C-alpha cells in the first residue's frame, strides 16, 4: 500500500514510522524542515490531568489513553534508534499566589476529585517541601502526580531517524499544493513540480491543514493558528527545578538536556510567528513571581509557534467522507501528548479498518 503524508511534525513523522513498521510504503511531504513548527515550539508536557477543562472529559479520556500508550510507543522507537528520550513521570504542581488563585485551584481540585483522579490540595508550605524553589508568595497548590513529560525536540529527532531507517521517503521543502481527485475519488497529491499517486493520503499539516487545495469545502478541516510564545532558559545549580510548575498564566518544564521551557502565550494573531517584547515580559514576570531563582538563568532561545486549533479545540482524527483521505490534525495544545493514540489509531484504521471507541468524539464527520 502506497501512502502519502502531508506534514512533517511529530504527528506526521510518527504515523509514517508506524506505517512503515507495518509494511506500508510511505512518502512524507514537508513544506519546510521536519519538526520545526509546533512540534519544536512545545514544552513536551504529557499532562491530561492538569490540562482537563470542565467541559473536556472526553478529551481527558483520550489523553489518558495516549499517556498509557507512551511506554509502548517509546519501546518500539528504541527498537529502531538509540538515545530515545526519557518518559519522565514527574507530576504537575499547579500553584497559586493569592486568594483568587486559591479559589481557582479549589475549583480545579474539586472537579478532579469528582472525576476520581489522583489529586491533592496542599498549602504553600507543603508545596515548597516538594519543590524548594517555589517562592514564599505561593499560598496554595494542587499536586497531580500522574502527569508526565518528555523532551519533544529529542523525540522528533529520533522519529526522523526511525522513519528514514525504515525506508520512508522524506521530501523536505516540498509543499503540497493540492489533493488530486478524479470523479470524486482520491488519486494522490501534487506539489509545484510533480504529481504523486497514492492509495491513501493523511493530512497532518497542523495549522496549515485547511490551506491544501482540492479538498471539497464541506469536508475541509476547520483549523486556525493560535500563536504561542515560548522561552528556553539554561538551568544552573541555583535553579535546578524538579518537575513541572504551572499556573493559569505560565508553565515551567525542566528538560533532561539541562534547559527549562517557559511558556506559553495564547494569541489570535493569524500566521504571525514573531516573538514580542510584551509576550516575553509577561511570561518572565509570572514565572519569576512563582520561582524567583529563574531571574539569573541564561536566556537560550525565544521563539513563537502556531498551535493548530479546530473549531472546538479538539483533534480531528480518522477517515473523512472522501474514501482514502484521512485527517490527523487540530491537536491544539495537546499534540505531543496525543501522538501515540493518534498514530496507533490512524494505522489501525488504514490497515485493519478498526476505529477505537475513545476516538468517536474526534472523528472528522462531527463538523
Description:
The protein contains eight helices and 19 strands. With 367 residues, the protein is of the alpha/beta class. Strands 5-6-4-14-15-16-13-17 form an eight-stranded mixed β-sheet. A six-stranded mixed β-sheet has the order 8-2-1-12-19-18, covered by helices on one side. A three-stranded antiparallel β-sheet has the order 9-10-11, with no helix packed on it. α1 crosses α8 (339-352). The protein is globular. The model has no long low-confidence stretch (mean pLDDT 96).
Computed CA radius of gyration, to the nearest angstrom = 21 Å
Quote the beta fraction.
25-35%
What is the CATH H-level superfamily of the largest domain? Answer: FAD/NAD(P)-binding domain
Helix/strand order, N-terminal first = EHEEHHEHEHEEHEEEEEEEEEHEEEH
Q: List the domain count as a whole number.
A: 2
Helix and strand composition category: alpha/beta
Amino acid at each position: 500500500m502506497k501512502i502519502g503524508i502531508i506534514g512533517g511534525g511529530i504527528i506526521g513523522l510518527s504515523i509514517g514510522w508506524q506505517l512503515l513498521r507495518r509494511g506500508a510504503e510511505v512518502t512524507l511531504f514537508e513544506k519546510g524542515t521536519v519538526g520545526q513548527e509546533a512540534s519544536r515550539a512545545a514544552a513536551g508536557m504529557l499532562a491530561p490531568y492538569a490540562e482537563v477543562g470542565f467541559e473536556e472529559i472526553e478529551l481527558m479520556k483520550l489523553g489518558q489513553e495516549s499517556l498509557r500508550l507512551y511506554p509502548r510507543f517509546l519501546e518500539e522507537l528504541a527498537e529502531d534508534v538509540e538515545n530515545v528520550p526519557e518518559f519522565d513521570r514527574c507530576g504537575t504542581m499547579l500553584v497559586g499566589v493569592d486568594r483568587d488563585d486559591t479559589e481557582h485551584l479549589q475549583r480545579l481540585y474539586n472537579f478532579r476529585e469528582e472525576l476520581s483522579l489522583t489529586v491533592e490540595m496542599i498549602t504553600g508550605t507543603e508545596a515548597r517541601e516538594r519543590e524548594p524553589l517555589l517562592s514564599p508568595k505561593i499560598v496554595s497548590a494542587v499536586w497531580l502526580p500522574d502527569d508526565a513529560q518528555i523532551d519533544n525536540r529529542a523525540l522528533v529527532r529520533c522519529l526522523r531517524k526511525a522513519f528514514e531507517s525504515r525506508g520512508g521517503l522524506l521530501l523536505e521543502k516540498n509543499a503540497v499544493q493540492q489533493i488530486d481527485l478524479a470523479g470524486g475519488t482520491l488519486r494522490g497529491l501534487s506539489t509545484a513540480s510533480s504529481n504523486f499517486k497514492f492509495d491513501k493520503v493523511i493530512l497532518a499539516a497542523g495549522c496549515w491543514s485547511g490551506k491544501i487545495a482540492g479538498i471539497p469545502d464541506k469536508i475541509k478541516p476547520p483549523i486556525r493558528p493560535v500563536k504561542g510564545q515560548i522561552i528556553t532558559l539554561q538551568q544552573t545549580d541555583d535553579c535546578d527545578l524538579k518537575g513541572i510548575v504551572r499556573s493559569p498564566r505560565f508553565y515551567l518544564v525542566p528538560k533532561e538536556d539541562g534547559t527549562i521551557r517557559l511558556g506559553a502565550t495564547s494569541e489570535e494573531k493569524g500566521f504571525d510567528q514573531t516573538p514580542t517584547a510584551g509576550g516575553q515580559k509577561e511570561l518572565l514576570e509570572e514565572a519569576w513571581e512563582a520561582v524567583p531563582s529563574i531571574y539569573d538563568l541564561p536566556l537560550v532561545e525565544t521563539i513563537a509557534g502556531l498551535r493548530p486549533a479546530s473549531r472546538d479545540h479538539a483533534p480531528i482524527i480518522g477517515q473523512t467522507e472522501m474514501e482514502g483521505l484521512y485527517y490527523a490534525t487540530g491537536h491544539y495544545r495537546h499534540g505531543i501528548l496525543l501522538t501515540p493514540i493518534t498514530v496507533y489509531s490512524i494505522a489501525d484504521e488504514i490497515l485493519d479498518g478498526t476505529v477505537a471507541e475513545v476516538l468517536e468524539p474526534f472523528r472528522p464527520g462531527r463538523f
